[in-house]
Amino acid sequence: MTKLLEKAIAAVRKLAPERQDELASMILSASPEAPVDLTAEELEAVEAGLADADAGRFATDEEVEALFAKFRAA
User: Which domain covers residue 74, as residue numbers?
Assistant: First the structure.
């Protein structure tokens, strides 16, 4: 464990139990093995994306660049 993490855990120990649980959930969700809870709408979007990928439907380079340009301008 790093010194910074030890310091953070010492600080968390001083918090209310509810806040400790919130932070523990955040830490556990950072794990690559952590399960992801999706809403029905999110699951539907993931399934649609996978179906598009299976069918070979991907954004063109131009579409991707236009999207990036939109967010760079914001």
Answer: 38-74
